[in-house]
Each structure stands twice: as C-alpha cells, then as structure tokens.
Amino acid sequence: MNWNKKYISSLVIAFLSGYGCAKLFPLHKSITKETMVKEYISLGNKKEIYKYEDMDLFIYADGVDPNGVYNRPNGVIPNDSLAVEMAKIVLFPIYGRKNIEYQRPYQVTLVNNELWYVKGSLPEKAAGGTFCIMINKSDGKVRGIFHEK
C-alpha cells in the first residue's frame, strides 16, 4: 500500500511538472498580427544626388557592368514560363487576377529570339477579348500591353 502511494504521487508530480513546462514553453506559437513579419518595407521614391550612368563609368573601366542585364547570353527572361510569370505580375493589377487566370491556357511566342509575346485565350463561344503583352527577352522591359477583341 505504501509503495502504491509513492508511485501514484510521483506520477502526479511528473504529470503536473510536464503540464507546467508545456504551458510555460509551448511548442507551437500562434502567429498574430503583432508577431507577423512583413515581406518587404517600402521606402518610397527618394532623390539621389548622382546619376547612375555617371557612377557606372567610374565603377567599371569599360563602362559596362559585367553582371548587368545586357551581358546575359539568354537574357533576363530566358524561357516561356518566366515570361508568363512576368506577364501575370504586370497584368494582375491592370485586368484583375480572376480575369487573367480565366484566359488560360496562355499562348506564348518568342519573336525573333528577342521579344516574348504572351496572349490569353478564351473558351469557344465565350464573349470578350484577350490580353496581349510584349516583353523584351534581353532586359525584361514591357514593350506593350493591349486587349484584343
């Protein structure tokens, strides 16, 4: 009988100490608005006291940045999947995510190995038109955005 009391009391003490530790040091903390980390901080538009072109001449002997966009053999947008992602980034704020995703599958064409032409498509007998966007392969600049009927 005496042994059972010691055994039960040690089990109770172990349980209470384990429960107390679990309350003090939880394994999973819930993320609230106060603990959430921002993905980025916008610093806005600020004026600089120098021009980037002038600074490049001082930094690089031949005036060409070896890591710049124009020294990439396949360009900044080397493949069709990246061209589609770039198109989505540009078009979602303009036409809306739902509208652009409705126009899948996208038709992607590389014109003269220098210009990505991404166009939406609609199901047969659907009313409306599709988006079109042209993106430079070499530097990622958007050359044009329009909507076809």
Automatic annotation (TrEMBL):
Pfam family, one: Imm-NTF2-2
Protein name listed in UniProt: NTF2 fold immunity protein
Domain NTF2 fold as annotated: residue spans: 83-149
